[in-house]
Amino acid sequence: MGGMDARFAEDAVAVGNPGCTGAPRDQPQYFPPMNDGSALADVLLQRFPVLADLPAGALARVLAECPVRTVRAGERLFDRHTPCEGFPLVLDGTVRVSTVSSGGREIVLYRVTPGEGCILSGGCLLGHTDYSATGVAETDVSLVRLPPALFNELMTVSEPFRRFVFDMYGSRLAEVMELVEEVAFRKVDTRLAKLLVQRGPVIEATHQALANELGSVRVFVSRMLRSFEERGWVRLERERVTVVDPRALTQFAQD
Fold it and tell me: What is the pTM of this model?
């Protein structure tokens, strides 16, 4: 362990090393919002307290090799059948990870929010495989991306970091299993009612976005939303759904 710690200390270089870009040339351009090492350290430790438990010199190496990157809303971080360039740690914003059927229907697998990493990226790095889904910035996103070599070293030498990654796997697996159960065994109308209650009282989204969330198609979701509006449960506006009667929607979702 001592040799590992020494290597982390020896490998530390100046903050802002451009070598850790994390994305191939055809990926969206990133815009570093901060270059101050102490400010970045504060943000990292606030979002990811586990980094305080890294071996000596490891945090300095993260700061040196991985400056903050910003991805604009709507841009892709990764796509299906492309190699993984690193393990992203989200500081601000939301990344939507989804998959698309051969018929063009999208279903959202999970979201990565501040203080979380992307387990799909971790799985690709550990398994030496390409991505099997797409990651898109749902809002403007700030992140650092651990390059593969550093991620694999931290998984080897840091038990707290390893536990952090595997804990995320456990929680994401539970979410995906719940999603499979919802898609396989519950009707779209009850799932839509549940989604509106969870996301309400005001949901800023198009009908297509809600359909993607449910793994359905826009025409069905629009029809059900109009039905909910006729019953007085929701109010529809352009790219906005306002929940008027959450109790009725909850009861409908449970029936």
Answer: 0.65
